[in-house]
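Tokens for chain A. Residues wanted.
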């Protein structure tokens, strides 16, 4: 893949990036790869380098800083076609010669992402030109094992750490959740989401859940303003997929004192499927929706769904029974009831206790889970549930 930087300001010849290797440093110093006569720049201002899979840009600790698509760089970011790099009076545009897919076919897939016929045509076109993405679609359709690492690229570490959770459809991201991970500082969710939607496997995302209050350590008073600001950020992303039909920035468990925060007009223009839907809610509680149970398991205390209030416990019985029990009782002390739901700062949590490993959230194993809408709770040898908010 050939890649280059187009000079928008000041005008000049394109800057060719060495294929598959190397780095370029920009600044005022004569030792830089490319020297700019701009007194506002540092001697070594920013760098564009190949990391083995992507070209990345990073600021070199300058006072003025470097921006990518208008956002300040705190760490290196992967570059995608059309990205705008700015520092001082310099403005560069990242370009590649990656083959352009048939826009009509992509539009057809976007309108009916569950219809396989267009996907098969897309896979055939990709395979005809030797594109490995075509084989990925075909393998996924056949139920084969997929290697996600090369396709998630710069997001792989966040994926492994649990900061990014993904549900797949034919090798493409169908649902993505961005959340805090145990033992790690909150991630830069803007950089993560922007990168995800620029990835080839991220172009048909249908559901996006972002735990905004925890990722930005927000107080309840700050949430309304930050939810709107987050929507403005999304509305300005060049790679925002038209397939997005669900967006959530979290919830707060409390009696509703005002209406939910809905999609802004700016975002609704880009995403017609979201028009009028809530993106952040103050709710009465959360509910477990039964997805299914293991053969022979009987449910006690739950029929179809159950609103969780106060402390609700899970107990897996000895006779193929799965119970959900409400207070009274001390969960850690009560025999056979080591797993329970609790509410802290208006958020639902699941404490696994002695059932750590037997209870999983979105196939993750932990002792404490911060629960978000659509999280899937698996009680091994018991049942599977989905978390829903209750207005």
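Reply:
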């Amino acid at each position: 893949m050939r890649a280059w930087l187009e000079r928008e300001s000041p005008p000049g010849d394109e800057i060719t990036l060495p294929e598959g290797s190397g780095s370029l440093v920009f600044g005022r110093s004569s030792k830089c790869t490319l020297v700019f006569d701009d007194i506002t720049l540092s001697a070594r201002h920013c760098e564009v380098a190949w990391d083995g899979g992507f070209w990345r840009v990073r600021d070199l600790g300058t006072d003025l800083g470097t921006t990518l698509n208008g956002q300040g760089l705190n760490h290196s970011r992967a570059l995608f076609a059309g990205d705008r790099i700015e520092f001082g009076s310099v403005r560069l545009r990242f370009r590649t010669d990656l083959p352009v897919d048939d826009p009509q076919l992509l539009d057809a897939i976007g309108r009916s992402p569950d219809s396989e016929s267009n996907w098969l045509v897309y896979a055939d076109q990709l395979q005809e030109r030797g594109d490995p993405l075509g084989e990925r679609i075909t393998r996924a359709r056949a139920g084969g094992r997929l290697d996600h690492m090369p396709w998630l690229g710069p997001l792989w570490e966040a994926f492994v750490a649990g900061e990014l959770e993904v549900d797949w459809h034919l090798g493409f991201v169908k649902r993505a959740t961005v959340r805090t991970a145990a033992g790690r500082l909150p991630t830069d969710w803007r950089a993560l989401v922007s990168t995800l939607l620029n990835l080839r496997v991220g172009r048909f995302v249908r559901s996006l859940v972002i735990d905004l209050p925890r990722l930005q350590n927000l107080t309840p008073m700050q949430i309304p303003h930050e939810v709107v600001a987050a929507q403005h950020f999304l509305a300005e992303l060049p790679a925002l997929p038209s397939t997005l039909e669900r967006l959530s920035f979290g919830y707060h468990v409390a009696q509703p004192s005002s209406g939910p925060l809905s999609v802004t007009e700016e975002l609704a223009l880009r995403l017609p499927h979201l028009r009028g839907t809530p993106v952040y809610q103050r709710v009465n509680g959360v509910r477990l929706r039964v997805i299914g149970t293991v053969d022979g398991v009987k449910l006690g205390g739950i029929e179809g769904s159950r609103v969780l209030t106060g402390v609700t416990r899970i107990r897996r019985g000895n006779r193929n029974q799965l119970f959900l029990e409400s207070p009274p009782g001390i969960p850690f002390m009560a025999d056979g009831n080591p797993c329970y739901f609790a509410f802290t700062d208006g958020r639902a949590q699941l404490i696994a206790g002695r059932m750590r490993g037997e209870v999983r959230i979105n196939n993750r194993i932990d002792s404490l889970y911060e629960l978000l809408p659509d999280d899937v709770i698996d009680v091994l040898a018991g049942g599977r549930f989905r978390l829903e908010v209750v207005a």
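Residues 328-335 have pLDDT under 50 and may be disordered. The CA atoms of residues 24 and 48 lie 5 Å apart.
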